[in-house]
User: Which sequence fits this backbone?
């Protein structure tokens, strides 16, 4: 397994609309394993293939909910190949979202509270599930990436410009990337 480089705004590849996965082969399994390792290393709870420069309709999610106080989060990565939303609820909720491609920036985004999703697994088998809460929000966020949409695209133009200016300023001060708690220099 390998840790892949995560694309960051304003990389134009983040705006590419991803193509459906057609081959459920060893290459797909390798990519998924690398994406999961990259997501954990970042650290994040979701990652779409386009965020590592691969324009395929593929994403991984692991909410890593903690088991008990002081224990390591339980890892249970989920893989969604060619995901689609079938039935978003009319009820919406706000959630403060962040994104590995928009480093160290967070904003409230409104999304349907509940969704019914359909996707394939690594063997091509079709699954359907109703999702709520953080899983529903995260899946919608990651699926936006497959359409070339970032969470900041849901913000007003003014708020989006402020976020992009903060990232640019941090890069200028930090020499190329936004420094976070996981930097080792």
Assistant:
């Amino acid at each position: 397994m390998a840790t892949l480089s995560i694309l960051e705004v304003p990389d134009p590849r983040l705006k590419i609309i991803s193509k459906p996965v057609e081959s459920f082969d060893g290459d797909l399994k390798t990519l998924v394993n690398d994406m999961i390792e990259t997501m954990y290393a970042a650290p994040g709870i979701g990652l779409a293939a386009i965020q590592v420069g691969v324009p395929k309709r593929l994403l991984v999610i692991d909410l890593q909910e903690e088991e008990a106080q002081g224990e390591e989060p339980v890892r249970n990565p989920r893989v969604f190949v060619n995901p689609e939303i079938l039935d978003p609820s009319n009820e919406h909720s706000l959630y403060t979202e962040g994104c590995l491609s928009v480093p160290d920036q967070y904003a409230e985004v409104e999304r349907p509270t509940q969704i019914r999703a359909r996707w394939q697994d690594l063997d091509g088998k079709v699954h359907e599930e109703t999702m709520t809460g953080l899983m529903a929000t995260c899946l919608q966020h990651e699926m936006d990436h497959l359409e070339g949409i970032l969470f900041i695209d849901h913000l007003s133009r003014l708020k989006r410009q402020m976020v992009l200016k903060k990232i640019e300023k941090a890069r200028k001060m930090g020499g190329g990337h936004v420094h976070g708690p996981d930097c080792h220099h």
